[in-house]
Amino acid sequence: MNDIVRRRWELDALRGLMLVLMFATHLPTRYSIGLGQPFGFVSAAEGFVMLSAFMAGMINTRKADRNGIPAMRQAFLIRALKVYGCHVACLLLLFTLIAALGLKFGQPGLTNLIGFYLNNPLTGLLSGMALIYNPPLLDILPLYVVLLLVSPFILSHGLQHGWRGIFIVSGLLWLAAQFHLSEGLYTLLVAATGLSVPFKETGAFETYAWQFLWVFGLWLGSMDAKGALRDRKPFPQPLVLSSLALVLAFFAWRHIVGQVPVPGNEFINSLQDKWFLGPMRLLNFFAMLIVVMHYGERIRAALPRLKMFESMGAASLPVFCVHLILVLLTLAILGENLDDRPDWQDMLLLAGGLYALYLSARVALGVKRR
Predict the structure, then answer these.
(1) Model pTM greater than 0.90?
(2) How far apart are CA 73 and CA 159, in angstroms?
(3) Considering the chain, what percentage of its residues have pLDDT values greater than 70?
(4) Which residues neighbour 79 within 8 Å (Cβ) at sequence distance 6 or greater?
(5) What would the DSSP string read from start to end of 325-364?
């Protein structure tokens, strides 16, 4: 997916920003709560997934136009295998070195995270490599692999027959996901096969909900490759103003009440649920997207280019893996008890970790160029 002749630096910078926010959120420091969902009830994960799908749709539409559908499908398969290889490497590191460190230092934050594996090592290893058992923090790459594997079929159908049917099916799957489609199907699978991995250990992301965001990103990237986004009509002013008002309202709501929209109100909180991509969360996301698309050119012209973010975004896969390793090592060695750490140590952890991510990006890009 990196064969684009001229990189879109603004997209790389946005992906780099999403990686920085994910790292700051996942790293167990005093800053994680404040930096989580800083723009409203939308996390960095939504932005990262949509941007990844956008770039996949844009690059592979060009590949299909230039080299044909089979070449596009091969590119998706190669990328899926790369992501799967990175996931397996992180999984093996977690189950060996990081697990040993967590046990040695007696850190429950790490041992609870891999509790199923510690109690069922062989089942945990095999089901983890089969993308069934997905410990916390290591559940987004399996989702990415699955979405990459189905993407060539989605994109080829969209290019050849249009996107209306795809969006109808995708929307219905998202709706079914709000009523726990995955859990119901998984229960049937367990009944049929005797699989011993509990549903809660299969990962927090509801695949049938998140596919909607991925499909939307694929479509948007494909439209960009065809020139449709550059030639589109401006958004109507009432839509832009309404979206801006929603973005500001959600931003104020998030920073006044915290990351739980209405403490104690399960129904409203479910509408903002991250793992199921609740309807109000999608409303927040699409309102933000409209604002960014409308004001994007002016923002890009006004802001300086942030090379650090660009480098991270251009090497997003290795940077994401390094971010996982750093977070897991911190949990294994220092734990998540913030009261035992002075402020300066948290500041040093965050700054040092971000520098390590930047270095990993530079190394990865250097290797790629050679």
Answers:
(1) yes
(2) 13
(3) 98
(4) 1, 56, 148
(5) HHHHHHHHHT-S-GGGS-HHHHHHHHHHHHHHHHHHHHHH
